[in-house]
Amino acid sequence: MYLTNSPEIASIAEENGIDRIFLDLELRGKEARQGNMDTVISHNSFDDVKPLKKALHSSKLLVRINSLYDGSKDEVDRVIKDGADIIMLPYFKTVEEVETFIGFVGGRAKICLLCETPEAAENIEAFLKIPGVDEIHIGINDLHLGYHRKFMFELVADGTVEKLCNKIRKKGIAYGFGGVGRIGGKVPLPAENIIDEHYRLGSQMVILSRSFCNTDIITSPNEICETFQNGIKAFRAYEARAAAKSADALSKSHADTVRRVRQIVESICQDVSK
Predict the structure, then answer these.
(1) Residue 159 and residue 148 in contact, taking contact as beta carbons nearer than 8 Å
(2) Looking at domain 2-273, does it have CATH number 3.40.462.20?
(3) pLDDT of 59-77, one tens digit each?
(4) Greatest C-alpha distance within the chain
């Protein structure tokens, strides 16, 4: 999945193998939760849905609306009318919220739940029993904040994400978690490690992070196209290698991921204490 509200960029992404375009319309409560973090808080518009859908031919359009409130039915009706294939409900905590949301959708689009609160994670079995849930994405950004962790991938290293994936898989519901950057990036937790975790845990979807193609920095259409071509080619090549790895090799990669995450957390704690 790739996040954008630009039809031009969405078209380039689709041409280069992106399966879904992700339009983020969530604003309620997000600034309070993530305002002091290096995360993207989108200020997109409901007017973006129709042009994005028109620009796509094979890729699906996923729209994240706001968490449930008095205006949710109007939001659902609007994005479905304008072409959303999948609607994502963020920051839910109760079964009643999810059932109400599913009722609003009424089978007119696929439903993706964004499991990103401790309440959702700790009661995941209850949500899995609700008819009409097509897929679940585990949002480790807000979820790690809810658990008062220092780094989002701590939830991968400590087994939280694995437990959730195992429970979701038993119900036969598609799932994914987190985001991932570019292959070969010189970062403390490489994309290669994260992709290995997706294959180890049976994940079927991931969001490409801002670093994959930061269109605030890369603005030329030719450069954007080249960035996607090279990035997706490298991503798919590494996916093939990850898919071919034995359980033992993926276990060793997991151990390396745990080690790297611990180092990152130690570094964060040291910076805070200075």
Answers:
(1) no
(2) no
(3) 999 999 999 999 999 999 9
(4) 53
